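Hey, can you fold this one?
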Amino acid sequence: MAYELQIGLRYLYKGSRGRKSAIGFIASLGLVAVGGALFLLTGGSSGIAVQALTFGMLGAVSFGLLYYLSVFTTVSPNTSRCSSHVVPFR
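Sure. Predicted structure:
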């Protein structure tokens, strides 16, 4: 059970924060701010403002999740705890 907990924690938490994810998150928040300002200034009639707001929010959620959670994970190189029939990817 401890091994599964370790794998689960490695899957959720990657230990180091990605700089590119942080930059993407900040840029997406900027796009949300610009899109929201355009949306409010035009009274909601600007299609570009709606698109900027939509893509900015999607980017902020995506980059925020990539910043806090790990998507691509690896299994521990210590395979002594794994059963003998499991072959690691190379």
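The two ends are 25 Å apart (CA to CA). Let me know if you want another pass with a different chain boundary.
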